[in-house]
């Protein structure tokens, strides 16, 4: 089935290539759209691609113009800009690309470990001011030192693997049981890790448990002269406590990419943090995941999810739909059905299929507490007839024939 796609906000061209390659018609609008302008543009649109600056609100989703909308691709990491639950209740599956910038963050962290160890940030600033400070004081190799990774997930594991190539010993602490990669070793407690590591790098999500996870007591637990790197979330570190630890010489340095409060705009002047002007502190404006490669990966991954959902109904990776993937079988005819998760839906669906004299070749149902998502392959091409019947059911949110 050919679908109409609307891409906003300068999404990477690889997305358009993937979508047109799958036979869909792509229309582009360069910038973000405000609510009413977005509603106006949605007439006849099946797949919508946005980045972080377009808000898809409940009003947008419930507008008459959005009635053809099947899916939204968030060509970014977060999905806060989309009313996910209303989208789910309308039968609109949302996809994003949470791990396409993993490597970008890991590479920045590796660069920072070496930069902190050699005080590169300070030497660079001094040279720009004409100060020639040729000294080995405070400058060390990383080989043979210990790296402590807090949060051994997608980014933490990548950092650990890369760090070993530089001769670092890798320890990690995670609340979940994790398979150590390479020669990394798990440590049972955060304190246990802090006491051993020359570099501590944080890769945990923002949760109530990780809020202020690195405050004054934890910084005091770290080895004297160790360095801290935070490219996870700004709430994880108590900035004032970190500034104190640097000033007192408890820590040799820090690299910080994320802050408790960050400007919304991508370009602003006058940003303030207590870490400014401190010795051997590298500050970056939340650019850990911001590389051209990551943008391209995001474009490809999200477009692939939209293409898969459009052609086969696969919802794997959706942030608001039950996950469902049914392998393709030749000479079968697929339909998908989104419905309210109440008793008796399967009975009604299967009765309609039986009435159409079709045999079910394969059927897969996945549910969450609100909706069910059903994929069905029939042995005869009666999906339109069945879909028309399904649309009459009071429990149906969306029914679609894919053949
Ligand atoms: P992930 O979900 O793959 O890994 C997070 C790990 O932290 C998991 O293994 C989890 O079990 C562990 N964890 C959760 N709570 C914990 C706790 N209290 N103590 C110890 N471990 C805990 O996440 P991923 O992709 O590795 O991302 C990590 C962080 O990096 C996230 O906060 C994410 O928002 C941030 N990030 C930052 C970017 C930047 O530009 N600076 C770009 C991409 C991600």
What structural keywords apply?
Alpha-Beta Plaits; seven-stranded parallel sheet; binds 1,4-dihydronicotinamide adenine dinucleotide; 20% strand; 3 domains; elongated; Rossmann fold; 16 strands; five-stranded parallel sheet; alpha/beta
Write structural notes for this entry.
The protein is an alpha/beta fold and 403 residues long. The protein has three domains: 1-101 and 291-321, NAD(P)-binding Rossmann-like Domain (Rossmann fold); 102-283, NAD(P)-binding Rossmann-like Domain (Rossmann fold), CATH 3.40.50.720; 325-403, Alpha-Beta Plaits (2-Layer Sandwich), CATH 3.30.70. The chain has 13 helices and 16 strands. It has a seven-stranded parallel sheet, with helices on both faces. α1 runs parallel beside α11 (292-312) and α5 packs across α7. The longest helix is centred in the last third of the chain and has 21 residues, at 292-312. The mean pLDDT is 95. The structure holds 1,4-dihydronicotinamide adenine dinucleotide (NAI). Residues 77, 99, 101-102, 105, 150-156, 173-176, 203-207, 209-210, 231-233, 257-258, 286, 288-289 line the site of 1,4-dihydronicotinamide adenine dinucleotide.
Task: Present the secondary structure layout.
Elements lengths: L3 E5 L4 H9 L3 E5 L5 H7 L5 E4 L7 H5 L8 E4 L9 H6 L3 E3 L6 H16 L2 H9 L17 E5 L3 H12 L3 E5 L11 E2 L3 H7 L2 E4 L13 H6 L4 E5 L8 H9 L3 E6 L24 E3 L8 H21 L20 E8 L4 H11 L4 E8 L3 E8 L4 H10 L3 E6 L2
Parallel strand pairs: 1-2, 1-3, 3-4, 4-5, 6-7, 6-9, 7-8, 9-10, 10-11, 11-12
Antiparallel strand pairs: 13-15, 13-16, 14-15
